[in-house]
């Protein structure tokens, strides 16, 4: 009985140490995450192997694992930039991105876990200033939003691709101009729209007038041709045809006496 406590104490101590070692060595990586291993006595960050995947892992207690989100992420950025004529423009954008999984070790070694603040956001701000500076407020307000969105994406992508970051999309959600400039642009656009409507009405009226003129000219030409074709002989033949049709009618009594100046029979009466 006296020996039991002496045996139990080392066992209990060993179990405690084992539990501590297991707790320090056990790493669980959740869905959408990956781990970068840092070997304290083995050369530091492991860059020549793929990062640790999802699930449960055991590592030496003196090593560390840095966990990164490797799914697509989104950050929002509000920026103040200048247009081509020096006016201040407010730009709201969202950026879709993810770290390049196979290069996660390099990303951690060179940029660290704060890579979004250190690399991505400064790059997007620089690209936005460069792109917006090429356009006037009128272009930004009316027709060039898609263009600046695509250009910001391309300029940002060229830089972050070499920084182990995959850029998926840049979305320009809002472009805010100074109120006085916005009102002036809206007035100008309204005037241009009214001018286009007036020009359309003029063109429509002109086409309608041309149509009426053409129709009238066509009728005049037709009458001219008809008049030229109605000779005395043709009129006399048509008169004879009409007289014969009247004579054949069951409801008519026709008396023909002599002829008129044109040589046609005279119809004196009928019932």
From TrEMBL:
The record gives the membrane topology as: Single-pass membrane protein
The Band domain, residue ranges: 25-189
Keywords, sorted A to Z: Hydrolase, Membrane, Protease, Transmembrane, Transmembrane helix
Q: Does the keyword tRNA processing apply?
A: no
Q: Which domain of life is it from?
A: Bacteria
Main localisation = membrane
The molecule here is called Regulator of protease activity HflC, stomatin/prohibitin superfamily
**UniProt source species:** Pricia antarctica
